[in-house]
Structure formats: structure tokens, C-alpha cells
Amino acid sequence: MTDQNDNHRGDPRGDNVTPIDRARQAMSQTVDKTREAMGDQLGVARERFQDVADQVGERLGDRGEEVREEVRRRADRAKVVAREQLSARSEQLREGYERLHDNVGVASDDLASYARNHPGRAVLIAAAAGFLLGLLFRGSRGD
């Protein structure tokens, strides 16, 4: 009697596999196939992601190099402009110094000529200037 019940519960082929065992085996095979398929898809996705990441990296690298080159060009241009402006200002200062030097020379010559032509007045002007300077310096000492 046990043999008949076993045959009804078992596989019609007679290998005593229950439907639950067959379901487990089918589920296990399905899980294995799904894992394998997902692993393959995951590998493909990883490759695609890596390709995209490489392309983005190359583009950013190229763009970064372009930016660095543009910064270099602008810095070089700014350096040239700064040198030109410095040169222009130096020239203006040199010309201003020369004019001042010439004017001081002319004023000195004029004063010397005035002192030769009017010695009395020159002495009085010099004495007055000395007196005023003495008052200024004496007052600043607090005496």
C-alpha cells in the first residue's frame, strides 16, 4: 500500500520526486538563469558605463586643456599689455623729469642772473627767507 501511495505522490516516471522538489529544482534553475542573465547584463552595463565615463573624461580633459591654453594666452596678453603700459608710463615720467630738470635749470639761471643784476635785493630776500625758516623751525621745537 505504501508502494502505491508513493507512486501516486511520486513522479510518473517512478523516481520518487515530489512536485515540491520539482518546483524547488525549477525555481533553482530559474534563479541560476536569472543570475547568469543579470550578470551578463551587469557586465554589459559596466562596459557601457566605463565607455561613457572614458568619453566624458576625454571631453573634460580636452576641455580642460583648452581652458588652460586660453588662460595662458590671456595671461600672456595681459603681460604684454602691462609691459606696454609700464613702458608708456616710464616714458612719461622720464619726459616729465627732463622738463622739470630743464625748468629748474632755467629757474636757477634766472635766479643767478637776478642776484647778479640786483645784489642788494637778493641779500634782503635771502635774509627774509632765512628769518622765516628760523621762525618755522624754532616754533616746531616748542622752545
Write up this protein.
The chain is mainly α. The chain contains three helices and no strands.
Number of helices: 3
Q: Which range best describes the helical content: under 10%, 10-25%, 25-40%, 40-55%, 55-70% or over 70%? A: over 70%
- Please summarize the sheet with the most strands: none
**Average pLDDT reading:** 80
What's the gist of this structure?
The chain has about 140 residues and is mostly helical.
Topology, pairings included?
Blueprint (H helix, E strand, L loop, with lengths): L1 H8 L9 H99 L1 H23 L2
Helix pairs in contact: 2-3
Could you name the key traits of this structure?
143 residues; mainly alpha; 3 helices; 91% helix; rod-shaped; disordered N terminus
